[in-house]
Backbone:
């Protein structure tokens, strides 16, 4: 009964990939992700509304492994495909998928920063920051921390580029956010 159980097979393979990834067993993780991805892609051909988010999630997991292994061209290609999927899903359900767009932009920024491609990284971090600012304006409890994290990363990039004025402003804003979060929840 493939229609009933293939989604469970794919989900379990993805979970196994996460486990292997956490244990730094990258070949096994990559193998599990690729098998899950193939299943999700075939399911998405029949029912894209249901399975396209799973394709994006699994492809992102695979890209994270590729990035970790310094396989930057493969990782970038996968991240770009994930970004395309999430951007299409945002048109249907922005509240659900906009945070995923920001997260993938951050992943791309990290990849480009690791390759010393600061112009690309800055553009990706900046777009992610704009998204998190927008999300935090309506739901600060959920998104202020992500916004602060991206601000801090952007400040680090500006510092590396010796753009000290920008870096200081971003570090200062980050600090204000973290202080406000700490006053509400110091242990976190």
Residues:
């Amino acid at each position: 009964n493939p229609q009933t159980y293939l989604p469970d097979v794919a989900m379990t393979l993805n979970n196994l990939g996460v486990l292997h990834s956490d244990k730094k067993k990258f070949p096994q993780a990559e193998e599990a992700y690729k098998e899950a991805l193939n299943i999700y892609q075939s399911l998405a051909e029949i029912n894209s509304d249901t399975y396209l988010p799973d394709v994006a999630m699994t492809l992102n997991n695979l890209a994270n492994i590729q990035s970790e292994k310094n396989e930057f061209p493969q990782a970038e290609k996968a991240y770009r495909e994930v970004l395309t999927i999430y951007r299409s899903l945002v048109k249907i359900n922005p509240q659900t998928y906009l945070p995923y767009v920001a997260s993938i932009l951050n992943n791309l920024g990290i990849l480009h920063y690791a390759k010393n491609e600061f112009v690309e990284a800055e553009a990706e971090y900046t777009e992610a920051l704009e998204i998190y600012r927008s999300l935090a304006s309506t739901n600060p409890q959920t998104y202020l921390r992500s916004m602060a994290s991206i601000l801090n990363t952007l400040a680090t990039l500006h510092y590396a580029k010796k753009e000290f004025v920008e870096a200081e402003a971003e570090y200062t804003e980050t600090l204000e956010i973290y202080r406000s979060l700490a006053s509400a929840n110091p242990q976190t």
